[in-house]
Each structure stands twice: as C-alpha cells, then as structure tokens.
Amino acid sequence: MFKLSDIKELVKLVDSTSIQHLEIEQENMKISIRKPDAAPVVQQVTAALPQSAIPAAQPQPVAAVQAAAPAAQEPQKSDAAAEADANLHRIVSPMVGTFYAAPSPDAPPFVKVGDAVNEKTVVCIVEAMKLMNEIEAEVNGKIVEVLVQNGQLVEFGQPLFLVKR
C-alpha cells in the first residue's frame, strides 16, 4: 500500500523531470500521474485509503485523459543502416529512476564504450524510490554507445546502451 508521503514524492519526481506519465501498480492499488503541461496531476487511484491518509484540503479535479500525440515519423533508412541496426541491441531501463554509471561516485563506471559484456554483466544502476537496482546487459556483445549521462533521470523503456552482438 502506498503512503501519502510516497505519492507526494512521486508527484514531485514527475514535476521536476521530463517524465510526462508515470504509472505504478502495487497489490490492489494503481497510481497514474500524468503531466499535461507543467503541473503533474494524480490521475487515478483505485484503492480505498484509510480516513487518516486523506488530507484535510479538498482534492483537485482529475485531469481528463489526453490522447497520445502521434509519434513522429522517422525518415526511411537505407538497407545498410537497417542491417546495422539489426546487429545492435538496446539495453533499456526497466523502470523510472536515476541512472548511475558506477557503484559509487569515486568508482570507475561499470562499463564503457568498447567493453565486452555478457548476459550477467552489470552495466549500471537505476535508483527508484531509494532502491538501487543493478541492470544487467542480458546479451553477449560489445558496448558501442552509452546513451545517457551519469545522474540523469530515465524513463521506463528508455534506451541506456547500444550493444553490438
């Protein structure tokens, strides 16, 4: 069960980042936070909260769900570029959080461009709600590009690394 303080922290996280939509499900509760303009809005909470958890202030109206904007069309790639992309694997963030390239500020990064990795190689840490989650490569190959900066906030599904298989 989410605490009111956790929900407030999530709203602040969304407000202070480029994240436009955050959805979290836990047991019998689902929270969806969407940022229509500059202010995040808690869109949906499906669970009964105890009376002690409801703030005294009147709740704000819930924003209407907006249809997602159509994705920008990518220019068509040449056959050679498409074939090169087929050999690249994207390691993506499994959650919303903060990307850390190293286990501590004074330690070297887990991996850098040119490093060989295997399925169990830890490539980074994504911190989410004060939990440090080690992210593994899950493929054999060689790191060809690091797509995010240390300390950068990342979204669910955002590519972090490109690996040539």
- The CATH class of the largest domain, by name, is Mainly Beta
Elements, N to C (H/E): HEEEHEEEEEEEE
CATH topology descriptor of the largest domain? OB fold (Dihydrolipoamide Acetyltransferase, E2P)
Shape: elongated
Our count of domains comes out at 2
Give average pLDDT, whole number.
77
| Strands, count | 11
CATH superfamily of the largest domain: RNA polymerase II/Efflux pump adaptor protein, barrel-sandwich hybrid domain
The neighbouring-strand order within the major sheet is 4-11-9-6
Enumerate how many helices there are, as a single number.
Answer: 2
Please summarize the sheet with the most strands.
4 strands, antiparallel
Determine the fraction of residues in helical runs and give it as a percent range: 10-25%
CATH architecture identity of the largest domain: Beta Barrel
The Rg value, from CA coordinates, equals 19 Å
Strand percent estimate: 25-35%
The structural class is mainly beta
Q: What is the first-to-last residue Cα distance?
A: 41 Å
Summarize the structure.
The chain has two domains: 4-53, no CATH class; 79-164, RNA polymerase II/Efflux pump adaptor protein, barrel-sandwich hybrid domain (OB fold (Dihydrolipoamide Acetyltransferase, E2P), Beta Barrel). It is built from two helices and eleven strands. The chain has helices spanning 4-15, 79-86; strands at residues 21-26, 29-34, 41-45, 88-92, 97-100, 116-117, 122-128, 131-136, 141-146, 153-154, 159-164.
